[in-house]
Amino acid sequence: MTERLYTVAATEWSPGCTAPDAAQATLALENGRVLYLPRLAFRLPINERRFLSPRFSDGKTKNISYDPSSGGLRHTATAGADRTALARMMARYADAAHALVTGLCPTYARDLAWGLTSYRPVDATGRQTSPRKDDTRLHIDAFASRPVRGQRILRVFCNINPDGVPRVWNLGEPFEAMAARYATTVPAQLPGSAWLLEKLHVTKGRRSAYDHLMLSLHDRAKLDDDYQRSSSAVRIEFPSNSTWIVFTDLVMHAALAGQYLLEQTFYLPTANMMDETLAPLRKLENLCHRPLA
Ligand SMILES: [Fe+2]
Questions:
Q1: Looking at the predicted structure, is the pLDDT value of residue 291 above 80?
Q2: Domain total of the chain
Q3: 6 C-alpha vs ligand 1 centroid, how far in Å?
Q4: How are strands ordered across the β-sheet holding 167-171?
Q5: Domain span at residue 76?
Q6: Distance CA 118, CA 50 (A)
Q7: How many angstroms is it from 80 CA to the middle of ligand 1?
């Protein structure tokens, strides 16, 4: 479809990848390409298809979220047996996504840490939200409440739309170009602010200089109308029953349309990459001439 995608023909969630193929796929991912698996579907058995409805959302957030570490389910209006079955469906997706990443990128297996699992049953278009929260605007992912301190954010997406509706994304310019535009004018964190945010439980852990800079880049790009209008972007349609994997802290992206998406977040230590120099942390340290971890 485009050189932005690296297509993998796998049809199984546990692909047995041979060494040269795995290294090639892993490096493509680290270089900011999207690992695209057009033939990999996450099939729902008949008794789970009832979850293909926006009524399972709580109406306040775009995601129903599941925590694979605790088994907790949040942001859904459902209760009882439905709630248990929905959690089970999301847990199955979390396990499948983990098997996929460790199968395609075996060098990540040892230190890959679980993030949350998300299910988005609500249409991506027409949500009323502030520009900062508006994911139809080009952005890199950075989390306000969950500092990563340089760890990578790796996400596995699967379009489970039953009516053939694609998930439509824009992919923006390279990270370096966006960072060069904004990074050098971001003021440092106020002394003591990271400590205070942690103390007040606004953040889970201490926000690092890297987290502060990444959040600032996320906000500046999203709030810059001129940038959103004029920066280059490639439109990609991910068909229903396809899967894709992206380092969303590196790849400028915007989710324009689609409904019924599963997504699994993982965290990866920068030191665990095949080429650490490709990490946003190292790119920003080069640009700013100071350590940020
Ligand atoms: Fe995003």
A1: yes
A2: 1
A3: 19
A4: 234-238, 167-171, 253-257
A5: 5-288
A6: 17
A7: 31
